[in-house]
């Protein structure tokens, strides 16, 4: 859609705006009639200024200008009926109404320009999300997948949470991660990780090699440049938690390296199993501060199992009393079928848990079911 062709009066709520126009016209009719019937020393003309002011709150400048012109015409008619247009009282009312109509029409124009800018920014954000955070395919090899992303801010479309899947000749590799921080810097760091993962997932035979490659790509990107052009090591303040998985086609198992990320949850026959690794690796970007233990640990992943990957925005969501969202308990109560159904259930339940409050952080979830 060409944004230049999008007018405010073509908003999806255009029929509603037509209905709202009844209010200012009804107001002008009532005020005009009452002003004509009022005693000579009572003047209700100033109330006509409310009509264009109300219109400016929901309509564009053309409609607002039209209502303002009708209000001025109504004031002129009332002045002619009650006496003369040229007497001081009516002249002041007419001039004042003209000025008010011009100002509110200008306001409506500025609001329309601002709405167009917001619509354009939303389109840009949606396009960036499709590029950076591509939707996962529903079926990859023996796996059935679904994904969900909930931004902490309702106006936002993308943030620092990330996930991706890559198909290899032996199976499927996945990553889910969370960039420390917010804003465009977090989006940029997420783009680096995702781009590196998609490129290296097919090249590195071992999962430990893939994570080492991600670490090598992330570290230089997280370093800042000082005022003299010197590189400033800021890795203690910027890092990325991630869980990297390898799910082979030929065996009912998965291999996992967890880099400081919340552990995946496995749903098997109504039981929730936390896939906690014995040797966790440091978050990406912090390998220089500790000896990384890049050991891929193996867990059973059998036919019919559903694994849930998630970011800490899910488990750190609080209700009105400050209670964290109990993800494992809520996961155990689900009785549906399929990853998409599971994510819909958790998403609705998470929103109900926060009960009108904002999420403290972006929340992402990926559900994977092994079909055979």
Task: Note down, in words, how this protein is organized.
With 372 residues, this protein is of the alpha+beta class. The longest helix has 45 residues. A 6-stranded antiparallel beta sheet has the order 1-2-13-12-9-10. Strands 3-4-7-8-11 form a 5-stranded antiparallel beta sheet, with helices on one face. Strands 5-6 form a two-stranded antiparallel ribbon.
Secondary structure elements and their pairing?
Blueprint: H1 14-20, H2 22-37, H3 50-56, H4 61-82, H5 88-132, E1 139-140, E2 143-150, E3 161-167, E4 171-179, H6 183-200, H7 207-222, E5 224-225, E6 231-232, E7 240-248, E8 253-259, E9 265-268, E10 271-274, E11 297-300, E12 306-310, H8 312-315, H9 327-332, H10 339-354, E13 363-370
Antiparallel strand pairs: 1-2, 2-13, 3-4, 4-7, 5-6, 7-8, 8-11, 9-10, 9-12, 12-13
Helix pairs in contact: 2-3, 2-4, 3-4, 4-5, 6-7
How many distinct helices?
Answer: 10
Helicity level: 40-55%
Poorly predicted segments: 1-13, 229-236
- The coarse overall form would be elongated
């Amino acid at each position: 859609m060409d944004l230049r062709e999008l007018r405010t009066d073509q908003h999806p709520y255009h029929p509603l705006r037509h209905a709202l126009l009844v209010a200012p016209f009804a107001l002008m009719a009532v005020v005009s009639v009452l002003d004509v019937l009022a005693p000579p020393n009572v003047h209700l003309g100033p109330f006509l200024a409310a009509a264009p002011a109300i219109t400016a709150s929901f309509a564009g400048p053309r409609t607002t200008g039209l209502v303002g012109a009708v209000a001025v015409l109504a004031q002129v008619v009332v002045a002619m009926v009650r006496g003369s247009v040229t007497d001081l009282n009516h002249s002041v009312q007419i001039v004042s109404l003209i000025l008010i109509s011009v100002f509110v029409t200008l306001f409506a124009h500025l609001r329309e320009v601002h709405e167009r800018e917001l619509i354009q920014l939303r389109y840009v954000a949606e396009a960036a999300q499709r590029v950076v955070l591509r939707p996962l395919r529903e079926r990859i090899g023996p796996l059935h997948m679904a994904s969900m992303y909930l931004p902490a801010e309702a106006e936002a479309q993308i943030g620092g949470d990330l996930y991706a899947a890559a198909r290899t000749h032996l199976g499927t590799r996945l990553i889910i991660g969370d960039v420390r921080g917010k804003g465009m810097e977090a989006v940029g760091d997420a783009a680096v990780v995702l781009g590196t993962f998609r490129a290296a997932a097919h090249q590195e035979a071992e999962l430990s090699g893939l994570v080492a490659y991600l670490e090598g790509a992330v570290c230089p990107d997280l370093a800042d440049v000082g005022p003299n052009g010197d590189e400033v090591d800021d890795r203690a303040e910027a890092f990325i938690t991630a869980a990297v998985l390898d799910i082979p086609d030929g065996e009912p198992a998965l291999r996992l390296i967890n880099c400081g990320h919340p552990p995946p949850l496995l749903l098997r026959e109504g039981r929730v199993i936390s896939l906690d690794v014995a040797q966790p690796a440091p978050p990406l970007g912090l390998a220089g501060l500790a000896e990384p233990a890049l050991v891929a640990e193996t867990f059973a992943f059998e036919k019919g199992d559903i694994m849930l990957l998630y970011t800490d925005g899910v488990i750190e969501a609080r209700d009105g009393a400050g209670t964290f969202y109990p993800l494992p308990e809520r996961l155990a109560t689900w009785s549906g079928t399929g990853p998409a159904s599971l994510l819909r259930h958790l998403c609705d339940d998470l929103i109900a848990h926060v009960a009108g409050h904002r999420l403290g952080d972006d929340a992402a979830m990926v559900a994977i079911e092994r079909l055979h």
